[in-house]
User: Which sequence fits this backbone?
C-alpha cells in the first residue's frame, strides 16, 4: 500500500484527475473486497464509512464509502461543518453534491444556528456550544461526478450529500492547517454533548467494496 499511497497522495496534491487515480482506487477496493487489505473503518456521523489508508502527523489519505442510505444515525447538529484542514477529494464512483454556506452574526430573532466547537478524541467527538449564533447569508452548490476532483479550504462551512438514491466512493487527502478549528452549526438550544464513531465491521467494508467494483465493472 505504501507505494500506491505515495502516488495517490502526489496526484491529489497536484490536483491531477486521471486514470491513475481511478486505477488506484479500484485496486484498493479490490484488496478490501478480497480481504488482502483490512483497514479499520468508522461509521461517520455525516453518513459515510471513513477508512484511513495512510496517516501522517499532519495529513491523512482516506477513503470515504457513501451508502445510498446510511444504516446508522448519530448526527446531532445540522450537516453544516468546517474543518481544521485543507481537503482535495477525487470522486471514484457516483456523484457528490457539495454545498458551501456563508454565515453572519445573528440579529435579534433571526438566529438559525448556534456554532459548536468540536474537540475530536479518536472515536469520540466532544461538541461544545459557543456564544455565537448565526444566520445563513448565502449558499452555493456544485455537483462533482465520477472522475472529477473538488477542493475545500479550512474554515469553510459546508455539507456534502449524494444525489437521490445513489451511492459514492471518494478518495480524499487532508492536510492540517495550523490555527484552524473544527466547528459545526447546530440547534440554538442544544447543549454540550459527545458523539461516537462506531467501528464498521470488516464484512461491511468488504460488502461495500464488492458492490462498488460490480457497479463500475472493475
Assistant:
Amino acid at each position: 500500500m505504501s507505494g500506491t499511497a505515495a502516488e495517490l497522495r502526489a496526484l491529489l496534491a497536484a490536483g491531477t484527475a486521471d486514470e491513475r487515480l481511478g486505477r488506484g482506487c479500484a485496486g484498493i477496493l479490490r484488496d478490501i473486497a478480497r480481504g488482502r487489505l483490512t483497514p479499520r473503518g468508522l461509521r461517520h456521523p455525516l453518513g459515510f464509512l471513513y477508512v484511513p489508508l495512510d496517516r501522517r502527523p499532519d495529513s491523512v489519505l482516506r477513503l470515504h464509502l457513501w451508502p445510498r442510505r446510511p444504516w446508522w444515525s448519530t448526527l446531532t447538529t445540522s450537516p453544516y461543518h468546517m474543518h481544521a484542514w485543507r481537503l482535495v477529494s477525487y470522486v471514484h464512483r457516483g456523484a457528490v453534491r457539495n454545498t458551501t454556506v456563508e454565515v453572519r452574526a445573528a440579529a435579534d430573532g433571526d438566529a438559525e444556528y448556534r456554532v459548536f466547537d468540536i474537540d475530536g478524541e479518536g472515536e469520540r467527538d466532544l461538541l461544545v456550544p459557543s456564544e455565537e449564533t448565526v444566520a445563513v447569508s448565502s449558499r452555493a452548490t456544485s455537483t462533482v461526478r465520477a472522475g472529477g476532483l473538488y477542493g475545500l479550504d479550512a474554515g469553510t462551512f459546508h455539507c456534502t450529500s449524494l444525489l437521490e438514491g445513489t451511492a459514492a466512493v471518494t478518495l480524499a487527502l487532508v492536510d492540517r492547517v495550523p490555527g484552524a478549528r473544527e466547528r459545526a452549526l447546530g440547534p440554538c438550544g442544544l447543549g454540550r454533548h459527545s458523539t461516537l464513531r462506531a467501528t464498521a465491521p470488516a464484512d461491511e467494508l468488504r460488502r461495500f467494496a464488492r458492490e462498488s467494483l460490480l457497479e463500475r465493472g472493475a
Remarks:
- The mean pLDDT is 93.
- The CA atoms of residues 20 and 111 lie 46 Å apart.
- Helices lie at 2-14, 19-33, 202-216.
- The longest helix spans residues 19-33.
